[in-house]
Amino acid sequence: MSSKAPIGVFDSGIGGLTVVKEIMNQIPGESIIYFGDTARVPYGSKSQETIITYTRQIVRFLKGKGVKAIVVACNTASALALETVKAENELPMIGVVKPGAKVAANTTSNGRIGVIGTEGTIHSGIYKDYVKKIDSRIEVYGKACPLLVPLVEEGLLDDPVTREMVRRYTKDLLDQNIDTLVLGCTHYPLLRKTIRKVVGDEIELVNPAYETARSLKEVLINNKLENDELINENHKFYVSDGAEKFKRFAKTILPCEVIETKDVNIENY
Ligand code: DGL
């Protein structure tokens, strides 16, 4: 596999762009092929079987584009499908949960971490499992927040309705005296300001995207797959529905031109 090949990144929708942004900042020499499964979002309330099927289709699509590594920029797919699909493929694949758990475990001072995420991610207990492997004394409290992804997909990032939902979802976690809160869904960094307003300044907010980009860099170096270009602007974006809407949104998040976004019938893969 050539080190000039692109990196495949995917999510159920726009959330994975928060991970793409970090990759572009930390390893700007890489080109990216992004797939957002906008026709089938949200993933968070679907069964593990369905998420594995979706992930297999997207991995086939990305491999068809010649990617050299894949980043599962979706906590739900990282929690429910990554291990299965990784075992079926020879190319390097990383998710966002393990890197996020590592930062959270290293961030907490009082050993009490809260995690917000989709139903799939929270019910899998995967953040707790990874954190406990690092330090079994740390307590991890999870809260599923099913309404936050649709609010983000609707662009209601700083809206009274979103603020109220964040307040309700985080109340139990704050009552547990957490000092660290993991944004355990790649859509949530887009709500960072709102979440900050609600939880106050004392809580550390962990965005797994930063550590994910660092892990990706390590994986590329270890596999001798690092692209030596200084800056790469050859990125491509695909979605399963609503390419124009996606493009408008992507332009507001990414530090690069989003020249073209194409619709793909992912069910064909
Ligand atoms: N952004 C994804 C995640 O990190 C999925 C959200 C969803 O589709 O429910 O879990």
Structural class: alpha/beta
Our Rg estimate from Cα atoms comes to 18 Å
Number of helices: 12
Kindly report how far apart the N and C termini lie: 22 Å
> How helix-rich are the residues, as a percent range?
40-55%
Q: Topology as H/E string?
A: EHEHEHHEHEHHEHHEHEHEHE
Strand order of the largest sheet: 4-3-1-2-9-10
Bound molecules: D-glutamic acid
CATH architecture title of the largest domain: 3-Layer(aba) Sandwich
Q: Spans of 5+ residues with little confidence (pLDDT < 50)?
A: none
**CATH top level assignment of the largest domain:** Alpha Beta
Kindly give the count of domains.
2
Tell the overall outline.
globular
Strand content: 15-25%
In round numbers, the mean pLDDT is 96
Record field, number of beta strands: 10
- CATH topology (fold) name of the largest domain: Rossmann fold
What does this entry look like structurally?
The chain is an alpha/beta fold. It has 2 domains: 7-95 and 210-268, Rossmann fold (3-Layer(aba) Sandwich), CATH 3.40.50.1860; 97-208, 3-Layer(aba) Sandwich (Rossmann fold). 45% of the residues lie in helices and 16% in strands. The protein contains 12 helices and 10 strands. It has helices at residues 17-26, 48-64, 75-80, 82-87, 97-107, 119-124, 126-134, 148-153, 160-175, 192-199, 208-222, 243-253; strands at 7-11, 32-36, 69-72, 93-94, 112-117, 139-144, 180-183, 204-206, 236-239, 261-263. The protein has a 6-stranded parallel beta sheet, with helices on both faces. Strands 6-5-7-8 form a 4-stranded parallel beta sheet, sandwiched between helices. Helix 12 (243-253) links the parallel strand 9 (236-239) and strand 10 (261-263). The mean pLDDT is 96.
